[in-house]
Amino acid sequence: LSKENGKNSFSFYNAELDKVMMRKLQIENDLKTAISNEQLSLVYQPKVDLQSKKVVGMEALLRWNHPQLGWISPLEFIPIAEETRQIIPIGEWVLNEACRQNKQWQEQGYPPLCVSVNVSVLQFQHGEFLETVQKALQTSQLDAQFLELEITESMMQDIKESRDILDSLMKEGVKTSIDDFGTGYSSLSILPNLPIDTIKIDKSFMDELEKTGQYSIVKTIIDLSQNLNLKVVAEGIETESQRQILRENGCLVGQGYLFYKPVAPNDFESILKEAALKGDQDEIPLLGDF
Ligand code: C2E
Ligand code: MG
Ligand code: MG
Ligand code: MG
């Protein structure tokens, strides 16, 4: 820092840093009581069939309504929850709530769908993860086939341990997918041996689907999933051309603002009702009274 601008820019920088630090400290501290104060909730983003646009599943996404700070993005508070290991109880809350809600929808007569829940690496590696999943299923009475766990690629670092956990989950009947595929640093060679069901193409790769004929990464991931007998789901679909190219290249399922944003449980119910009224009953059996 030069003498002339040194003092002022330094104190300005300090003030900004203070603000950032204070916010982080507050988030860190208030997260401890977010569950007991009932500030956490889940929203659901429909997954759709890219041909018929019918809802075939949903992803549960965590929301935190802070009394002073308002809605805080999971992109901001989940890394902090991971640092403080608060993610363990929070992740458990998410699992329980997603299973409970999904079971409730089934009991209300909505078509049974699979709910996908995001799982943090810390949760996944926590010694009691399997028990937590089993407990959530038991308490909610949700059939394991209607639960999917989305795990990011970075979790596959400790490959031996990860495989053991994934094996147990598979035996349990729970589905698993690799989230944000292509953004991590894992070696492709680990994939063939991992007991997973689905690869999710990260939304950052949707951009290339706008340039005609230049979708090499997405095409490669779809081909890879087909060669490995895995399902493939695209996230972050915002345009009709993205939907079309994905579909033409063999990706059957996706999610994104083109179809639906993540919505509160009530609105998700409305989406399901609307789909039923549009005459989807033929393909979705088990529709009862709403
Ligand atoms: P993710 O699991 O990859 O979820 C997809 C994110 O993309 C969501 O952001 C979703 O709202 C957003 N999205 C969906 N469609 C579109 C689209 O068409 N365009 C764009 N630009 N974005 C779209 P959200 O809800 O803010 O969540 C961000 C991330 O936070 C998630 O990424 C996930 O990694 C993490 N997260 C959310 N809920 C949980 C949770 O319960 N547990 C854990 N461990 N992580 C969570
Ligand atoms: Mg996800
Ligand atoms: Mg994702
Ligand atoms: Mg993502």
UniProtKB/TrEMBL annotation:
<feature type="domain" description="EAL">
    <location>
        <begin position="24"/>
        <end position="276"/>
    </location>
</feature>
<protein>
    <submittedName>
        <fullName>EAL domain-containing protein</fullName>
    </submittedName>
</protein>
<keyword id="KW-0812">Transmembrane</keyword>
<keyword id="KW-0472">Membrane</keyword>
<keyword id="KW-1133">Transmembrane helix</keyword>
